[in-house]
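Technical annex, item 7. During the second reporting period the consortium partners agreed on a shared format for inverse folding records so that results from different sites could be compared directly. Each record opens with the tokenized structure and is followed by the designed sequence. A conforming record, contributed by the partner at site C, is shown below for reference.
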């Protein structure tokens, strides 16, 4: 089965796990697009995630925060099966995309990654022209009709067209760090995925470029579901609708509305982390 097909799995009939991480009432805050059910991830004998269950709402920004090594990036990469590329990785549990378990045998990981795009910490433009960077995924997927229009649209949505529209034949490697990251975002959104995963997309950028990326993320949430890993708690507070707090041992300690998480967390451990008492 392709992820492009309508899922035939009846989500109501799937085995559910107790909700142990979410205490907010999410009614009216966006339909769930991604649901993880008791996800465990192992690298060899080392457990990186321990029983992660959460519901990520559509067309909102969900931030994953926590200290280094707590499993944030591991969880992010589980959402589009990037951990499949690691020989020692093993995933147990379910992650549902619109009710379909992405770890079912009939799901093609390549097709999944077309629906769930990824932007990495370090800008990684291809050693190609700006135009070809954005057009690459479209060509691979056979979506090369009206290519000029689609490339321009992606660059505009990534808020970089005004800076590069007259130099599309120039190398993407010649751009500044912030421009390269926005180019990578344009490349990710050009094929129109449903979800964009971002692993610390501004950590390597200066404050001005970081602000541009944050503004862009907020704009993108009107069209896409955005899940972002960040070490910057102020950034999470500024741009996200929901926040998930991971702590040592790959445990999801709390998940809910960002304002509540930062102003009135239910867990003392989360309050201690946010206030800098540990982590």
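Designed sequence (site C submission):
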């Amino acid at each position: 089965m392709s992820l492009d097909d309508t899922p035939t799995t009846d989500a109501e009939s799937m085995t559910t796990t107790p909700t142990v991480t979410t205490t907010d009432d999410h009614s009216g805050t966006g339909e769930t697009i991604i649901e993880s059910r008791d996800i465990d991830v192992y690298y060899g004998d080392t457990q990186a995630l321990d029983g992660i269950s959460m519901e990520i709402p559509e067309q909102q920004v969900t931030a994953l925060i926590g200290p280094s090594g707590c499993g944030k990036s591991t969880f992010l990469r589980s959402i589009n099966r990037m951990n499949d590329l690691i020989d020692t990785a093993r995933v147990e549990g379910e992650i549902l995309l619109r009710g379909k378990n992405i770890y079912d045998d009939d799901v093609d990981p390549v097709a999944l990654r077309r629906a769930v795009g990824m932007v990495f910490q370090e800008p990684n433009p291809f050693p190609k022209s700006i135009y070809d960077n954005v057009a690459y995924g479209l060509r691979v997927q056979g979506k090369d009709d009206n290519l000029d229009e689609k490339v321009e649209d992606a660059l505009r949505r990534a808020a970089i067209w005004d800076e590069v529209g007259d130099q599309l034949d120039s190398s993407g490697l010649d751009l500044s760090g912030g421009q390269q990251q926005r180019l990578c975002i344009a490349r990710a959104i050009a094929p129109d995925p449903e979800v964009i995963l971002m692993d610390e997309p501004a950590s390597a950028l200066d404050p001005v470029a970081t602000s541009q990326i944050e503004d862009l993320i907020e704009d993108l949430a009107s069209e896409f579901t955005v899940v972002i890993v960040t070490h910057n708690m102020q950034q999470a507070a500024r741009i996200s609708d929901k926040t998930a707090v991971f702590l040592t041992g790959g445990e999801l300690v709390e998940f809910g509305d960002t304002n509540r998480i930062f102003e009135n967390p239910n867990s003392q451990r989360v309050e201690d982390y946010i206030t800098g008492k540990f982590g």
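Residues 4-29 have pLDDT under 50 and may be disordered. Residues 63 and 243 are 5 Å apart (CA to CA). All partners now use this format for quarterly exchanges.
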